[in-house]
Structures are given as structure tokens and as C-alpha cells.
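Assess this one:

_____
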Amino acid sequence: MKGNAEKQVYAALDKFKIELPSWGFADTGTRFGKFFQDASAVDLGDKLHDAGLVHKLTASCPTVAVHVLWDFKAGVSPKETAKLAKKHGIKIGAINPNVFQDQCYKFGSFCSPWKKAREQAMSHCLDSIKIGKEVGSTLLSMWLADGTNYPGQDSIANRWAMLKAAYRKLHDAMPRGMQLLVEYKPFEPAFYHTDIPDWGASYILAKHSGKNAKVLVDTGHHLQGCNIEQIVTLLLHEDMLGGFHFNDRKYADDDLTISSIDPYAVFRIFDQIEQFMFDTGKDPKLAYMVDQCHNLKPKLEAMVQTVMMAQDLYAKAAIVDRKKLAEAQKQADVTKAERVLRDAYETDVRPIVEQWRKKNGIPRNPLKELRDSGIIEQLGKERNAKRKALGISRGGSFA
């Protein structure tokens, strides 16, 4: 690539930031059990260390998303957590309440027929908002596991009414500058109906909640064959897209490394975002976030690999010839229009991405640097010793 294309890639990578999930560095597994790794994070300090290391290697991950139930302890000031993150060169990003793990949420949280569950969910989320304010977070990311397994189990309409009231209360409790992200999922863990099943329900809920609420698109939370980039485009033009949880899947919510199954899918999403900015001149200021649980790959390797792939795909979307594409579309030249996209996607952007990394003082190949450093093996020894010293039994909660 030469000239303008190189400038486009540099400009795109300079602004591209993607948030890492704290839970992606901890022991995780499937519904059948966990798979342990020696170098997985023992505590929040380890998670922040690992997130900071990925940012140091890639220069694109300045923030880390946290799960309140897993990452904050009673009696410890959230401001201390913010200081610890700063020590590792990052900041606390999205705040994720947890209203799906405790036993009282057996029949749901905000949509539960149990008043106690609804009250506990509200109390926890209001506390999460306070934590977000203390650590300087601007995002409250809400995903619910609420739903039912059998027809007639509960009133879908009544649950929706309770949900709208709850989200409106959360929205109004947020401090100035915080945004509520409304996530959806078509099924699991509920199998008959989920209370927020798709982008339409999220859109309605966000609109009802207030002006600081928008839709969060998780790329793994769709039925097979769903055209995700169409959803992205519609939400962009309605000014209702807040951000993404990026992962990949073969069947359902598989939480696989981004683009490990279908790289072209994420490119098509980035393409629509770039097209929106080209057409409107507006930056939608989206929150790009990773939401993956690496059970087989080493945690740090998978995260670095994810970020590198995201950088490549974002760079490819940035070099699409928008004027040439518009001409082909006006002429109804289907083949030419498709080739414009394919030409950008098939371009090997790695050399210019490596040059951008060199310019920013980071390794040309972050994954190779990580693997060659021996840090994962070193962390494995140190963290096993820490577990032994603390008497930690590996089990319990999900992350």
C-alpha cells in the first residue's frame, strides 16, 4: 500500500481502541466445568496486570471492563481499584453488574416474580452505578439472563413492564456523562423466551429508559444467519448504537477469539461503521469491547491475538474505496461493488500495521513478542505459588 491508503490506516489505528474484559483473564469454562491454567489471574490485581500488559503490547486497550460481583470486595474503596489500574497503565472502563449468578435469580432478576430478587437486583445495580462514579467509568453495561423455559411459566407482558420501570430507574440514577448500554440475547440460559431477545427489544427499552441509553451488540448473541451489519447500520442511523462485545461463534454464544470462525463478518461490521462516517461526517463514538472466555488458549495469548486481528480488520475497512463503491452502487453493478469490498478485505495490511506499531514504540508482532518473552510461564509459576500461599481451592464462581 502507498500514499493515501497508508495515511488512512494510520489514522484508523490511531483512533481505534478496544476494551478488554477482566473476566477474560480468569479461570473460566463451559456449563460443564472450568478448565484451569497456571497463568490465569488469581485476583483483580492479576487481571489488571494482564490487561495492562496487553495494552503495552498493542497500544489499543487503555481500559478494562469489570464485573462488580467478581472484581470488587466489600470494605475496599473502588478508588483503590482505579489507582491499581493506573499503576498498570490502564483505566477502569465499563461497569458490569451481575444479576444472574445468585440463587435468588432462579426465575430472573428485574423480571422475577419474586419481589426479593427484584429488590436485590436493583440494589446491586444502584451500587454498581456508585462504583462506576468513583472509578470514573462512563459506561453501565447491562446484560440480563432473565427469561422463562416453558410456555405459560410467567406473564411476558408483566415481566416487560417491570423491566422498563427498572431500567428507567437505573438510567435516572446515573451521573452526568454515564451511558446505559442495553444488551440482548435470543436464548440461553432461558430457552422458551428471554426478556430482551433482540436488537428491537433493546432499542425499545433504551428509548424508554432515557436519552443516555443505547443498544449494545454482542456479535455472539444472534440466531444463525442473522445479518448483524444490517442491524449495526440501522442503529447507527437512528443514533441508537452504543457499542459492541466482540467474539466469534460457530453455533451460539461460543465466546471464541474474534474472527477465528468468520473474519469477513467483523470486517463487514467495521465497513458499515466506516461507511456511516463517510456518508455523514459524524463519529458515532462507539464503545468497542472484547467479551471472550478463553478456555483452551492461554489467556494473554488469546487477548493479544484478538486485538491484533481487530486492528487488521479495522485497517482493512478504512481503505475501502468509498467513491468507487458509490459509483458501482449507482450503476447497479453488483459484481464491481462486491469487488470493491473484497479488494480491501483481501489486502495484506500487516506490513503497514507493523509500521504503525514501530512508530508507536511497540513490537511489530505483539503475539510473537509475548510468546518469546516467557512471561506466561513465569506468571504460571508465580500464581501457582500465590494460590498455595493463600490456600485457594480452584472452583466456585464463574470468574
Observations:
- The first helix runs from residue 4 to 15.
